[in-house]
Specification:
By secondary structure, the protein is of the alpha/beta class. It has three domains: about 1-165, P-loop containing nucleotide triphosphate hydrolases (Rossmann fold, 3-Layer(aba) Sandwich), CATH 3.40.50; about 185-265, Rossmann fold, CATH 3.40.50.11420; about 275-410, Rossmann fold (3-Layer(aba) Sandwich), CATH 3.40.50.11410. The protein contains 14 helices and 16 strands. Strand 15 (about 400) and strand 16 form a beta hairpin. Helix 11 (about 310-320) packs parallel to helix 13.
Length: about 400
Amino acid sequence: MSVNNLHIGIFGRTNTGKSSLINMLTDQDISIVSSRKGTTTDPVKKAVEILGIGPATIIDTAGIDDLGEIGHLKIKKSLEVILRVDCAVLLIAGNQFGDYEVRLIDQFKAHDVPYLIVHNKNDISKIAAITKNAIKWHSNAEIIDISTYKPKDREILIDSLKRILPKTVYQNNTLIGNLVSPKDVVLIIVAIDSEAPEGRLIYPQNQTIRDAIDNHCIVVVVREDELDNFLETGITPALAITDSQIFNTVTAKLPETIPLTSFSILFARLKGDFAAYLRGTPCISNLEDGDEVLILESCTHQTSCDDIGRVKIPKMLQEFTGKKLNFRVVSGLTALPDNISDFSLVVQCGGCMVTRKQLLNRLYPFIKKGIPVTNYGMALAYVNGVFERVVRVFRKFYEYDKNNPRLPFIEG
């Protein structure tokens, strides 16, 4: 999945050579290089192929020493990037190492981001012993001394990056691989409504079909209004997957003996903290009048009168609870609200367009504070009374606290 590509953040003061480093890594002139301070303003994403590493997204950030009100905003945006990357490069030059770098190191540690410290421009001045000692006082990270103008140093940089890459980045994650066996029939039931794009399937549907094919399954795709016709064939699928918005229609027709889940729930397990979702979803029943509910969309899209996150879920939560609730929507990877303790529930989308690291970094502040979190598909299943049925297929991967069987935790 392209959204699971390695995300690398490049951080450092202005004019340390961040843009030159990106050009060196990619062996292309894809980033503007200038001796003028502040050339890079907002963080800029670049999808690249790095020889020896593979497909990656490099995020070029503004200098962390930029001054003034605009500079402060640039730095704030640069620091937010730490929440989105799998690993980082802290770039220094001219033996400059001080508070700016220490603050970055503290942020890397706080968010469990593996990082590499690169001293650049060694063609002008090599890293000094006193600089190395200062760095080692604050960090155990690997330190390398290179020049972006020396082609041979590219291999040094790439080899060092390989050593810090998280093992999880290139794991062959699967949506349904451990739920089915080769030759199994997987039934895909798609909704055709005003939100369905004309002439194509949406990303989660495409990815689920591809994952089923990769796992050597036989895939059958039907519209919701053609489910009866399929069932008349007498074929028994090993797994049925549908859109969360049509749970009621599908569960009314599909025999209980056929395992059922949704695209959103599959992605919730692939990208999110599934155990936290299992714990948090039943807390919908505990909502009270005036409670604040946060809807987290991980992508930006045009909204419609049938929008699931902004229209359908708020309406269904209020109808189910009978309470007057207040809703707030945060889309994309926009910064979270300052006072997250105000929220009684967080409803996260499936996260099909972001990495697992990015999604978990958005969820963990709430989980750490004990604020219940759920997912679009799981919330819809709960209010429609089919929650246990659509998560049943995953229960074998979870154990339970004997003193509180409502609190599941993942094995291993």
